[in-house]
Amino acid sequence: MKKHSFVICAYNESPYLEKCVLSLMDQEDKTDSDILMCTSTPNEYVRRVADKYGIPLIVNPEKGDIQSDWNFAYNSCDSQYITLVHQDDVYSREYSKHLFEAVRKFDDILIFYSSYRALVTTEHSEEVQNDVNCRLRNLLSFPMRFSALQKKKSWKRAVLRWGNSICCSSVTYNKAMLGNMDVFQSQLRYSLDWDTYLSLAGLAGRFYYDRTVLTYFRIHKRSTSMLCIENEMREKEDYIMFCKMWPKAFAGFIMHFYKLAYRNYQNLKVEDKHE
User: Fold this and answer.
1) 20-25, Cβ contacts within 8 angstroms, sequence gap of 24 or more
2) In the chain, which end has fewer C-beta atoms inside a 10 angstrom radius, N or C?
3) What is the pTM of this model?
4) What is the CATH number of domain 4-220?
């Protein structure tokens, strides 16, 4: 059994799945990492990609939501360190190298995460952008650069009070510390990752932030992020999260700035490969 696993959460027929797989297979340090794929929507396309690259495919018999898919993927793997991979995203070939360097340095890392960039699929090409959302999250993550504070519960919670500074596709979970459990136990649908990190912040262990850009978060018309902005689910759930930590009036004030970031996504000229 490998020490670390990339577990791809595949759903329906993403045209970007193969690029995601290739980025994982191209890891600079892959001596102690393997790749798995989980799906609750088995189809010929997903099976074909998994077979093409010799990746074990595990089918979730329960067709649930994002949370149940993520929990199933996490619990399907026995490695100590688990990266829940988003099928549309691309990972730097140095991701596992930086992960292993971090866990050799600290044995109390509860979660590892990194800086990221937006990967925008434009009309004619893919373009890496350091957009408003990236800059905002990197700014919010600044306090987590200090190793002496990364394991303090109050510090972890304080950082998350100002917004979700963690790009969920960049996160690796330490199963040796978290155990066999449903890591995600939120009542929310879109902001479930933020809600989960706030809960994990109350546990013993380090939130290790790597400032290197190791993940590229794809933006396209059919992405969950874009759909949740369009139907205003993201705005509603982010407001719920802020109200957990701030008075409602101040939560509304913070949301004013977050709406500007949402507008940035909506103004992106992205290509829909299904059209």
Assistant:
1) 20/85, 20/86, 20/87, 20/88, 20/89, 20/90, 20/91, 21/49, 21/53, 21/55, 23/90, 23/91, 23/92, 23/93, 24/85, 24/91, 25/53
2) C
3) 0.91
4) 3.90.550.10
